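#struct-help
A.M.: can someone run this one for me? Single chain, 348 residues.
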Amino acid sequence: MPTTYAIPDGRTVMAATTFTGVTGGGSVVNTVNGVGFQPDFVWMKCRSVGRNHELADSVRGTPYALFSNVTNSETSDTRVSAFNSNGFSYGTNSNSAVTGDTEVGWQWKAGGTAVSNTAGSITSSVSANTTAGFSVVTYTGTGANATVGHGLGVAPQMIIVKCRSNASTNWTVYHTSLGNTGYIYLNLTNAAGTGYSGFWNSTSPTSSVFSLGSDVDGYVNGSGRTNVAYCVASVAGFSSVGSYTGNGSTDGPFIYFGFRPRWFMCKRSDTAGNDWVIMDTSRDTYNASQKQLYADLSIAEEVNSLYDRDFLSNGIKIRTSTASANASSSTYIYVAFAENPFKYANAR
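D.P.: on it. C-alpha cells below:
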C-alpha cells in the first residue's frame, strides 16, 4: 500500500450527486463538506422515471448530448447546459428533469479546456487529468489502421468510444481484461466479442496512444466520422479497472480495490443477457447496497435485496448469487472510482 496517494480525497475529482428535478432547469452542486470541483464529464440519469441516460463533456461542449442506452448520434440537448465551478446546470429540454423527479449526476474532472494532441496518426482534442487517470478525447476517423493520442501518460485500461456523427453505431468498449482483440458494447447485453482486429488493430494501448483498426462498421473509426472516447487508467487509491470470477453463492467474492468505492459499474462478459449495472454510495448510503441503474437501459432505478453488495473500506463484497453479479465460474468486468483510499476510509 502506498504511503501517499495521488488522489487522497475522491471528492476533488469524482462525484455522485443526487438531486430532485425542477421543471425549467436548475443547478446541481457537487460540493460535499466544502470540497467540490468543476466537472468535464457529466453522466445524468433520472431515477424515478424511465428516461435516457445523458452524457455531456467539456470537449464536445454544451448543449451536445449522447445517450448510453441507445445508438443515436449526438444531439443538441440542453439537459446538461453548463459546467460550473462546483457542479453543472441542466436546462429546459423535453428530456429534462421535471419537478419531483429524483435524479443522479455522476461527474468526473478531466483537464479542463481541451488541447490538440498529435501523439497519434490522427490528431485528437484531449482534456486529460493525468493524476486521476481520466481523459476525454475527440477525433475524426479514417477508416484505416490508425492511432489516437489520449493524454494520460500511462496506458488506459478501459476506453468507451461512441461515434458522434452517425446513428446506429454501438458504444464500443475496450477493457484490458478482454485483450486487444476483444470488445463489448455499453448499450447492449451481448457477451464480449473476441478475435477481432477491426476495432483496436490487435494492439494494446500505450502510454501515449490507443490503436484503431479499419472498422468496417464505423463504430470507432469510420472514415470522416467524429467520435468521442472516455479513457480510464487505474490509479492507486482512486480507480480500479479489472475483472472477477463469480462463485454462485450468496457469500460471493470480495473484490479488492484499495479504496472505499463511490461508484461501481460491472457487466457479466462471458454470456449474453446481462445488463451494465451501476451502483454508488450517494444513492445507497448504507449496506447492503440494493439500488441499481443500468447503462444500457432507460428504466427507472430498481431496488431489490437480490442485488445485495457491501461497499467496504477497501472494496466490494458480493452478497448475491444472481446471474448479473455472481454466477458460478462466470467472468465480470468492472470499473470503480473511490470515495477515499483505504488508508483514510471508514466503514459504513
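A.M.: thanks! Helices lie at 323-326.
D.P.: also worth noting: The chain has one helix and 27 strands.
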